[in-house]
Each structure stands twice: as C-alpha cells, then as structure tokens.
C-alpha cells in the first residue's frame, strides 16, 4: 500500500515515497495538446506508466514502463489531458499553475498571499519552432509543446533551469531523475505531484525555511512539514517555508500548504524534484539576484512590518518565572547591576498550575498582577506572557471548547488526540481566543508568546472544510495571524513571539529558533537556521541565548550572548539559571558589556530594521545577499552581515581567534579599531566582548549612550560615527533622519 503518512503521530512525511512504490499509477507530463497563446493556457497530456522490476547482472531495479489502462468501465482516459496556465505577474515573476484533475475543490482566499496577484505587460511573446517564448529584460520562459518542457533563461540567454521529461533518460536507470509527473495512490486515489527541474554543476540552493542543516541545500532532502523537532540539530523544522533561491539567479515558491518534500540533488545529483502532496501545483518562478528575489517573493506573500522599538531590547526569561516576587526580583537586579533590559518574560508558570493555560495569573503566587505590570512599566519593563492553543483534559476550558465546536475533530467528531486543539480556521474559535488574549493585553501585557502550533492533526477535520493535509502546515500561519491581529488592535504594536511558521508568517513578527541544545554545534546550527530563515522572507528572528535544554555552561553562554545581541531580537531563555548574577563576577561584567553594546548600536539597528522591512531583507544576512558576485560568500555559513554595514563572526568554539572571510574593501574592527584588507580569509582575535564585529569602510554607524531601557534613551544625542578606510573614525552628535522619525512615531504611539 502506498505510504503517504508517518507511522507515528505527527511524524514528518516524505511525499517522495509515493513515487517509489510498485502500487502507484504514474502519469508523466508528455505533451501540450492545445494552447491559446493570448491566454497563455492550454492542456497537458499525461501518459501512464508503472514501476516494473527488472533483473540485470544479478540485481533488480524498478524501472518506469509504459502501461495500458486497466480500468472499468472504459470511460476513463488512457492519457488524461488536464489544464495548465502561465501568468506573468511581475517583470521578474511568472506563475505556473498545473492541474491533474478536471474538477477541483472551490478556491478559497489564500492566507499565504498578501493581496491580489497582478499581471505584468512587459513580457513579449514570440512563436518558436517547438513552442513559444516570453521574454523581457529579466529573462525568458520557453514552453516546448512536444515533448512538454519549460525552460527558464537569464537575460543573456543562459539556461537557469528546465523541467525533466520522461524521454530525457540521462541515466541508464530511467527513474533517475523522476520526470515531471504525478502519482495516483492505490489506497485512496489521491494525487501527488513531482515537479522535476534541472540542477547545474556547482549550483547551490538556499532557503526552505528555518533549517538547521547545512546552509546550502544541494544534496539534501527537505521535508516541509511543520514539526517540533525538540532540537536545533535535526532535519525537522518548526518553520518550513516552500521557497528557495539558487546562486544561478532564480528562485521558486510553491503556493500550497500541503506537505512537500524537496529532493535537491540527493536522489539524483542533477535534479531538484519538488514533491507536493496535492493534485495541482501553483509555482511562482522569480528571476534575479538574492535581494531582488526576496523583494519579489515578499511582494507576493508580504513583508515583515517594523516591530516596536522596545522589542529590540533585551528580553530576560527562563523556564520559568512563576511568581510576582520572582518577576520583581529579576527586574530589580537587572537595574541594580546596570544591565539594560526592556522585557521580562513569564513562561509556563504564571498560571495556578504550570502549563495549564487558562489566561489567568495565579492568585496564590501573584498578589496583584495589574500593579506589578504598572510598576515594572514605570521602570522601563514590559511583560511578555507564554500560552498555548492546546487544552489538556483538566483544563478549565476543555469541555467548553468541545461543546462550542471550536476544536479540531476527527472524521467521527472525536478528538484526534488527547487535547482539545483550537481550530484557527473557525472564525468563532478565533473570536473566543482573541477575547482571552485581549483581556491580558488590556492589563498592559505587551506581547504574547505564541508557542507550539506545529502539531495540528493531519487526520483532523477542520472548520474550513479542508483536511489536515492542507491545514496542518497552515495552522502556524493562522495562529500567528490571530495573535498578531488582536495585539495590534489593543496595543498598536505588530509583535508576537512565535515558534512555528509557514509562508506568509513573516507578516507577523517575530519568531524564534526553538529548543536549542547547550552545545557549540547547536549554536552553529542556530546561526545556520537564522540565515536560512532570512533567506526565506523573514526580516526578524531570535534564538534562546546560551541554549535551552540544560543550564548553559558559562563559557558557551559568554560566547553565545553577543551573537544573541547582534540578532534582531535578543532573549535569554531556557533551563535555569539564565540570570547573569547566577554565574561568576566576570560573567556578570561580560553580560553587561554585551547588552550595552546592542543598546549603544540601537540607532543603527532600528534604522537598518526599517530599511530591511521595506525591502523584504533579513537583518541577519547571509554574506551573499550583499556580495552575490563573490563566489566565496556563497560558501560561508558561520558569519553574517547584521544589516548592510556590520560583519559579525561569532566565536563558535572556546578560542580567542578565528578565521573570517572578508569581501573586498577595508574592514574596521568595531572593538579595537584595527583595519583589515578584504578579499580573502583573515585570522582575527576577538575583542573584550567574545565576538568579531567589523564595520565596512565608509559606513556611518549611528550610536547612542546606553540606558536602562529604550524608554530612557536620550534620542536627542545620537552620535554619527564614520569609519574611514585609514582606520580613523570621526563622530559628532546629530539627528539621524530615519531613527529620529521612527522614535517620534514610537513616542506618539506610546503617548496615545
């Protein structure tokens, strides 16, 4: 029987397994049988095939073999012809929609897309011997009719990628690569698509969401299925995103929420096969270099709005502060030790019983939560609260949610798991949930931690009328949206703190990297994940500084801390203790210095955040985003650009120096002032703060005197520090135009 789901609850799904079985019936995209050039739409003929065992030279392989229809009555098609369509939606973007059924479910508005998709008139059509070509200054798309083929070329006519036809057969084994095809399951007649594209020698692929594995996805098999991996060092992902980009100058987005598997040259080195657990494929193809690709992708799925200024400060947390006394004590000690901080986060322990989310402060451990929030706010602190959309049987709301029909069920109307899981596809469930959150925000709570969300049952029945096959991956996006919208309504701020995501979730910042181990390798994996997330359309990202699972070793925590400070958002969180005074006196000083560094750089960070939000760029950037013409930058995964002008190289091991790759030009050490010549690898010793931070020569880095809270910063005295090629710096007090404008907006929002 065709295996389509995992053999364990919410286990990751490999959609490509459907294309390995003898039982499946295969239909391979063969030829275009009709095409209307003015409408750019037609019909595609699919020829039948089966896998058949072949013994040769004492081994057996399973080849594709043409097969005759054996169905009754004989009204079915031997080679079905199904609709497909091309739409040129922007000067650098083409949309390809291919169906495998004549009748499909009624379309509903996509939660992934941000607004209407337009039509661009710049594409010129011409008839070719084998079909049609559409081109403009960005590149061209060719449609060959028989055999069916799509070929994408850059503006110079060089092939970027093209589809594989079953007649290509570059290998002696005709299943390599899997041709552009679909598989029909013997168990339920469902269809799954394999969109197979060529990979070039030396081609590299990046993106696919918050992936902890190697930054270059070439040679990997990516399972795009939201799952809590309980780790930052496995192939599973909290935030898979069906978008990727190539160093060849193109990107692709699969507009679907179905489980997917991207086999990026693992089964067959020259093929990028996109397996989609759906009976149609809606693919956006983008032309351009990384910045343009992100701009174009986020034009379709939305960009990250600028979060409030206070959110860029330190968030102090652990598992878990569970009383008013603890929260007040932590806040007092942060001020006593002169450590800037803007947020105190209360995790799973602010309820009467830990983890049992009822949206009420514990009456036995919080004497007056309203007064606590008010008092901490006066001292520059905001409160963030944890919660969860899963309700255990002893939860106060368990029966109510079931009786009101606000939860996900199975096909018999029962709970598909032990919990009552809120169904965010149900507007009534959204309203019920937002009412609970609104009460907390009205008290003055500044942010809600939208934890979990990865485990929506794939066998569930949803209010939307769709199965878990399409709702599982969509659940995080609906969840993010629900929390963000009520927060925006009550506070005016666009801010959540979420762990799970799908395409479009970048519209609801911010997200963090989940439960990282307390190891050097987990720190590196978290860095890769942040870079990969930024290459998937997300501007803002955070991670648990020092690791989550156990008490952070002091040496690791000390090195991880400045990496955390030079991420867009900074949260110390995990198994206790996380407070710096619980470690050595030297660590306390190091902690203070690293946090003050971020607060000093806040005018730069806030300005770069504004510009990044506008352009769909990440704050934490893979090197090739800024330097796409430098081949070495496509190879580096252990350093990054923070905004456009700061190069950051964390200390991933307990050592005082490390190799850093510097693009051409001069670079000035932010801590020591030493100048380095770019264009190669340089060994650099870290400064007093255990991280390497270099400033691009010629950059002006606006800075400010650190304060206990961003509420207390003197924005009238922002200092412009210019870093020149000869190493000299000059500075002066000035009004940085973007920063000043944003601070004025922030003041107006707070005062109102």
UniProtKB/TrEMBL annotation:
- Asked whether the UniProt record includes Hydrolase among its keywords, one would answer yes
CDD domains from the xrefs? Answer: GH31_N, GH31_xylosidase_YicI
Report domain Glycoside hydrolase family 31 TIM barrel positions: 305-608
Segments traversing the membrane? none
| Top-level taxon of the source organism | Bacteria
Its keywords, alphabetically, are: Glycosidase, Hydrolase
Listed GO biological process terms: carbohydrate metabolic process
Q: Its Gene Ontology molecular function terms? A: carbohydrate binding; hydrolase activity, hydrolyzing O-glycosyl compounds
Annotated Glycosyl hydrolase family 31 C-terminal domain ranges read 616-701
Tell me which residues make up the Glycoside hydrolase family 31 N-terminal domain. 83-263
Family affiliation = Belongs to the glycosyl hydrolase 31 family.
Name of the protein in its database record: Alpha-xylosidase
């Amino acid at each position: 029987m065709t295996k389509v789901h995992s053999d364990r609850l919410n286990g990751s799904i490999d959609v490509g397994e459907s294309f390995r079985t003898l039982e499946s019936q295969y239909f391979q995209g063969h030829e275009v049988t009709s095409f209307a050039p003015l409408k750019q739409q037609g019909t595609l003929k699919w020829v039948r095939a089966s896998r058949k065992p072949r013994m040769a030279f004492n081994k057996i392989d399973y080849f594709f073999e043409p097969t005759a229809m054996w169905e009754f009555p004989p009204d079915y098609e031997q080679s079905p012809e199904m609709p497909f369509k091309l739409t040129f939606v922007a000067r650098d973007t083409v949309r390809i929609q291919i169906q495998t059924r004549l009748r499909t479910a009624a379309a509903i508005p996509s939660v992934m897309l941000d607004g209407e998709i337009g039509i661009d008139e710049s594409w010129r059509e011409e008839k070719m011997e084998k079909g049609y070509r559409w081109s403009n200054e960005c590149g061209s798309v060719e449609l060959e009719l028989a055999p069916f083929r799509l070929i994408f070329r850059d503006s110079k006519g060089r092939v970027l990628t093209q589809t594989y036809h079953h007649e290509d057969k570059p290998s002696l084994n005709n299943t390599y690569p899997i041709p552009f095809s679909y598989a029909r399951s013997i168990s339920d007649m469902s269809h799954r698509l394999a969109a197979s594209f060529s990979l070039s020698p030396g081609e590299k692929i990046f993106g696919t969401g918050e992936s902890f594995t190697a930054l270059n996805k070439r040679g990997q098999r990516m399972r795009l299925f939201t799952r809590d991996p309980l780790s930052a060092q496995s192939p599973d992902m909290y935030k898979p995103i069906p978008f990727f980009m190539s160093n060849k100058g193109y990107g692709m987005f699969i507009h679907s929420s179905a489980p997917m598997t991207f086999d990026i040259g693992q089964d067959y080195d020259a093929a990028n096969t996109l397996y989609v657990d759906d009976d149609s494929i809606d693919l956006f193809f983008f032309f351009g270099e990384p910045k343009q690709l992100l701009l174009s992708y986020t034009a379709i799925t939305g960009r990250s709005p600028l979060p409030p200024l206070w959110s860029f400060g330190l968030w102090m947390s652990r598992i878990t502060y569970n009383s008013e006394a603890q929260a007040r004590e932590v806040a007092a000690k942060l001020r006593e030790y002169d450590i800037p901080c803007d947020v105190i986060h209360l995790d799973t322990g602010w309820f009467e019983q830990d983890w049992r989310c009822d949206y009420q402060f514990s009456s036995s451990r919080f004497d007056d939560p309203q007064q606590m929030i008010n008092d901490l706010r006066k001292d520059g602190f905001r409160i963030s609260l944890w919660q969860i959309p899963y309700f255990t049987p002893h939860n106060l709301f368990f029966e109510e949610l079931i009786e009101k029909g606000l939860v996900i069920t199975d096909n018999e109307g029962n709970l598909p798991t032990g919990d009552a899981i809120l169904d965010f596809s149900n507007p009534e469930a959204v309203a019920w949930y937002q009412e609970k959150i609104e009460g907390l925000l009205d008290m003055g709570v500044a942010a809600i931690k939208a934890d979990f969300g990865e485990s929506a049952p794939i066998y569930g029945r949803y209010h939307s009328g769709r199965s878990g096959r399409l709702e599982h991956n969509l659940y995080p996006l609906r969840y993010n949206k629900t929390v963000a919208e009520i927060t925006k309504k009550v506070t005016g701020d666009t801010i959540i703190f979420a762990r799970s995501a799908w395409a479009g979730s970048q519209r609801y910042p911010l997200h963090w990297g989940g439960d990282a181990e307390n190891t050097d390798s987990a720190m590196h994996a978290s860095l890769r994940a942040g870079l990969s997330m930024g290459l998937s359309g997300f501007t803002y990202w955070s991670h648990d500084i020092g690791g989550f699972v156990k008490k952070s070793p002091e040496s690791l925590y000390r090195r991880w801390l400045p990496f955390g400070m030079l991420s867009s958002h900074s949260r110390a969180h995990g198994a206790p203790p996380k407070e710096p005074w619980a470690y050595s006196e030297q660590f306390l000083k190091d902690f203070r210095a690293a946090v003050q560094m971020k607060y000093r750089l806040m005018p730069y960070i806030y300005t770069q955040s504004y510009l990044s939000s506008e352009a769909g760029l990440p704050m934490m950037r893979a090197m090739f985003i800024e330097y796409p013409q430098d081949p070495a930058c496509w190879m580096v995964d252990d350093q990054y650009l923070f905004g456009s002008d700061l190069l950051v190289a964390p200390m991933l091991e307990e050592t005082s120096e490390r190799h850093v790759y510097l693009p051409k030009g001069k670079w000035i050490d932010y801590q020591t002032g030493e100048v380095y010549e770019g264009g190669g690898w340089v060994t650099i010793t870290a400064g007093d703060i255990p991280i390497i931070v270099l400033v691009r020569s010629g950059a002006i880095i606006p800075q400010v005197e650190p304060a206990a809270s961003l509420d207390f910063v003197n924005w009238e005295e922002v200092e412009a520090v210019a870093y020149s090629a000869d190493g000299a710096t000059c500075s002066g007090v000035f009004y940085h135009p973007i920063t000043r404008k944003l601070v004025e907006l922030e003041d107006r929002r707070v005062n109102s």
